[in-house]
Protein kinase domain-containing protein
Amino acid sequence: MNDKTHGTVIDSGERDPKMRTRALRSSDKVNPAERVDKAKQFAAKVAHLDEGSLLETLKHKYKIVRKILDGAFGFTYKVQHVTTKNEYALKTEPMTDEESMKRFKTLKTELVLYQAMDKIINPIKRQHFCQLVDFGCTSAFKFMVITLLGENLYTITRIYLNRAFTPSTALRVSIQMLRALMDLHGLGYVHRFLKPHTFAVGLGSNLRIIHMCDFSLAWQFKEEGESSVRPPRSRVKMMGAIRYTSRNSHHSRELSRRDDLESWLYLSMEFFYLNILPWRGDQIPSERTSQEGAFLHWRVPEHVQTYLGTVQGHHALPEKDEIRGNAGLSLPHAVPAGR
């Protein structure tokens, strides 16, 4: 599929060279939706696996059971180990050096992060993450095998229940999400893509444990063993789930731990009161941030506001117990007016 370009038609008699240069640059821009469609079509050609097919690595062989998810640049499958019959999740991503596809390549970031998680000695600090089982590549695609999870929290609340959790369940889920987030920050990474889809329940004995997943936009803000963090870039593209992303993201600022925690607050509020967030996804940044500010001021308890004020910038973070105490225990009291 050929990319369509959108630009300004310039009359041949145009005399202003600056205007002509701006128009030529504009004509080179590609519709983001078309770029995503092109990436998906490319992934479908080289990284798609049929049910019942086999994938063999150096030490293991897996049978494709079914497709779980269509990603932006790859697929997630439920697979079964041919020998042990254990079931796992397999993520694929096309092998390509094409410049236009570079922004969609995220599997390497996730793999490096899962390898860092495997080094965590304390089992309590890694219980909210999947375990890396296997990884490798073929001539056409790269892949990664990780622990299989149950349903994500969006599916549970929006499809199965069609309502918020009970207060006790919402509190338990919110605190577990916060613990997962703090453990991720402890590894030197920020998530930057928090939404109900990025948290899922476990299976079997881990059914009541909330797991964090989808680290496609994760960013390492601190090198391993270093105490100082990377300086923020002056301007970055907006990223994250629009409904839950922080105010900084709407102003193209570098996202830090503070922004993950703000997104966590929005998520947690909706697990207590479904659709409590007053803003829409299509609002311009100034309208959205003003609504977020009013929401945080009038609808959130003072303890939670204190927590948000404490979590400032890259350097000044409160102790974990202080965050859990001020934020987690106050969430049930964040009752909106009229409820």
